[in-house]
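Hey, quick one: can you model this chain's 3D structure?
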Amino acid sequence: MVRAILLAIVLLAGTPAFGGEGLPPGPGEREKCPVCGMFVAKYPDFLSAVRFTDGTHVYFDGPKDLFRFTLGMKRHAPSRRPEDVEAIFVKDYYSLAFIDGRKAFYVSGSDVYGPMGRELVPFGREEEAAQFLKDHKGKSLFRFGEITKEILEALQ
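Sure thing. Here's the predicted structure for all 156 residues.
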């Protein structure tokens, strides 16, 4: 009986998250952000990732660089196309769990800083993002498709 329960726990722990998409395996200690060159494992709270259709991942020290990458793939990954992106992961600010970056809510202009300074702070729930915006002097709340290069430039 105990073995059956342990087996069930192990199997459930390996179950992919959000509709069949598995979580990224995590960066190696020497993994660098392809946008800024920082070692990403040093910043687990803001860790973000892209999974490509070939199963490979790239990691970022924060959502801001993830967006710079996805909006500027010709520059940062000339051999890749936007169609090659299978999944996007960001860490929910409060739970620190990976969430689907395409479904997340992002607060810009707050008094919370990431590894590279001003950051887009991600949330899985809109209510939490809206409260954070009020509590931390945020300027705007965005969905994934609303983030533009101009918004990223304003975070400089």
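One thing worth noting: The two ends are 57 Å apart (CA to CA).
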